Amino acid sequence: MREDLLHFIWQYKLANTTLLSSQNEEVHVRLTGTANFGEGPDFFNAQLEVDGQLWAGNVEIHIKASDWYAHHHETDTNYDNVILHVVWDDDIPVFRKDKSQIPTVELKHIIPPKLLSAYQKLMDNSVSSFINCERELADVDTLIWTSWSERLYIERLEQKSVLITKLLENSKNDWEAVLFQMLCKSFGTKVNGPFFLERAQELDFSVVRKTAVKKHVLESLLFGHFGLLDVRDCQDLYFLNLGREYSYLKQKFSLNQSITKPAFYGIRPVNFPTIRISQLSGLYHKHRSLFQTLVEITAKETFYDIFQVFASSYWDNHFTFGKVSRKSKKKVSVNFIDLLLINIVVPLKFCYAKHLGQDWNEELIQLLRSIRPETNAVVTGFDRIGMKSQDAMESQSKLQLHQHYCSKNRCLQCAVGTHLLNRNTYF
Which Pfam families does the UniProt entry name for this protein (predicted)? Predict the structure, then answer.
């Protein structure tokens, strides 16, 4: 037995609205209360009639009644207003701090086997290769998934806002600096992203503004700051000029040189930090007030025009310093721009609109709906079981669903899971 099933039974009144407590008191449920996912009792502001007397307060749910003491609720003031204890197994009586006994309802003898069977079927992942409910997803109404998908995406935006809020606090609300830091994280890709973000936070963005006038100067700043100029035996003029320029900048702006180098192993050459840093330099040389520019535009094509920049000509036949490769222009790809829009532009515009007290929904949803869905193992897994993503909003929703619900067996906090369980539990 899992506690989340007991929460589900209580929330949806699947054990009937009139119950009998272990003390033989008749308990009539008027309101189950509001589910609480933080500290304190599981449901707030419930309304009950216990032997004809109306009570208003909180409800706590446990597998065993003795969990009340195992969790030390008897000493926690947050639980002083608990008016009902709902348990699977009422193994011991439970008392408040004032020694009065809390009415307890035991569920194990009153839950229909049909409900338990439906729950076990939903949670049985022994025959599922991807998610628990993959065999039943085809039966879910489109309206249920559409509504849940939108809620999942807003939830994902809110979670991404946490990092943005933290960066804003650290930069004294400099939105341009926060954009730069987040772009560094994305241009660092999955392998080097955390390191690039950390180093970007250590760089005063005013130095980026000052050096962006000349691309080679900004390149020298970023290559040096991210630890990419410590290369032995490279005599290429481009490399030597970058090194001399960075030595001057380091002294002029009192920069701290990185003692850590970014990784190259396991990364596709087009994503090498050398290529990405040169492209990022080209972006900031081209657009000095990039955040303000991005805030003012809405058309996807305009975003593409802004982000389609090239690495410097040296990288046409190099991926690393000093080693010649086959010639090719190193342009930021459309797929990479899509990721920038999904992971940086939309979350930042979302936070900025909230900061200004403006509505964000229509513009950002329209932008996401115009972007192709991402390609990754999770999205492909949903495609395989018949839930093909049509756009980036759907693929983002599915990433949120899989990461925070499916992979954690939180089926009873998922609109799809509760629908599948509810449809078989009319008693």
Answer: DUF2851 (PF11013)
